[in-house]
Amino acid sequence: MASFLSSIALPVALCAVALVLMLGLINMMRGGSPNRSQTLMRWRVLLQFVAIVITMLAIWALGR
């Protein structure tokens, strides 16, 4: 389980956070909709929370 979390789940979660962050930055630079920026920011925060939970689970599983 620790191997799956640290080698697959965590990189996927981090890439998802980076992708949403880039989409938000592109939207802001192009002067896009403020509502879309808010939605992307909410998704980024949620994905960051998921990435932190996966990180903590991986650390816990590696310590067992």
From TrEMBL:
Entry's transmembrane regions: 6-25, 45-63
Domain of life: Bacteria
Domain HIG1, residue spans: 1-64
Pfam families, A to Z: HIG_1_N (PF04588)
Keyword Transmembrane found: yes
Keyword vocabulary terms for this entry: Membrane, Transmembrane, Transmembrane helix
InterPro entries assigned: Hypoxia_induced_domain (IPR007667)
PROSITE patterns referenced in this protein's UniProt entry, alphabetically: HIG1
Gene3D superfamilies for this protein: 6.10.140.1320
Name this polypeptide is given: Twin transmembrane helix small protein
Species whose genome carries this gene: Rhodopseudomonas palustris (strain ATCC BAA-98 / CGA009)
